[in-house]
What does this fold into?
Amino acid sequence: MSRFLSGSLEGLRPYEAGEQPRDGEYIKLNTNESPYPPAPGVEQAVLAQAARLNLYPDPSQERLRRAAGELYGLDGSYVSVGNGSDENLALIFRTLCTDRPLAGPDVSYGMYPRLCKLFGIEHVVLPLREDFTINLDDYSGISANVCLANPNAQTGLYVPAEQIEAFVSANSGRLVIVDEAYIDFGGTSCAPLVKKYDNLIVVQTMSKSRSLAGARVGFTFACPELIAEVEAVRHSFNPYNVNGMSMAAALISLGRQDYFYQCTKKIVATRGHMTAGMQALGMQVLPSLANFVLAKSEKTGGRELYAELKRRGILVRHFSEERIDGFIRVTVGTQEQTDALLCTLADILKE
Ligand SMILES: *Cc1c(COP(=O)(O)O)cnc(C)c1O
It folds into this structure.
């Protein structure tokens, strides 16, 4: 540790992103990217923008805010655009969450505790129930703000939008942040509810369901007052946070709802096939509404299964947190990738 490191950062353990291997060909099912390419037209739009890289992008992000809002019947004043959800979460935490603790489940997205540490926010950890579900009653008796991923990261389990609405409505004194990175794979979004509730923030990303992980574009949906505050911080930090090529890619992509539905529909179908195939091999699979499943076999540990799959050319994710260290998390890829995975699993698990 240098003698210059900020005192509050002592002991910060950075988020460990999934491997992005450069050392060979893997079937890559470890970081919940889409197996399908960006929407038709994205590549040309990015190339056209590349010719204008001498200019700054539009810091108001007006067109993209309007296009994202339209998905949920909101105008642009309900939307802020970030360099991925990760940046949006940072802006929200910094702008709106530093004055009281923030509560969330023990098994969830690893960025939440890191961002809390960065911004000096106390992170209150509430365990998921035995079956890995989130029960919002657990969040009732406290005064902390709440940040949930829905469907939840690592488990794929989903809390119905009506339950979230009831909670938001009954807790108007505190902020509820719903991270909907995986909402397009079967859940119902809470985004339209930001018109009705000024204590609700919904975060979405183009990284998973819209095949744009490399572009880094995410959206914050909230009432105009909260958005204006987040925007003031964004403009004080990095007004050009979304580059011109990514903005162009995002705009084209949002215009191709047909392609988006086609891709998410395939992923949902393949998720069913993958779940059934794993169950047929005797594995336990949590019921997922995301583009991944959390699964385990009694025959081998999670880390061992991850390593054995990697040895055979298939990359999945293993988390060493105690409650889920027996599991592997597997991204839903193409049908062909899933068939290859199931064959390899069958081979590994046959005594
Ligand atoms: C992937 C993911 C993010 C990050 O999304 P980016 O837009 O790629 O930064 C945020 N939250 C959850 C729950 C995620 O799974």
Observations:
- Residues 84-86, 109, 149, 153, 179, 181, 205, 207, 213, 218 surround pyridoxal-5'-phosphate (CB under 6 Å).
- Residues 206 and 212 are 5 Å apart (CA to CA).
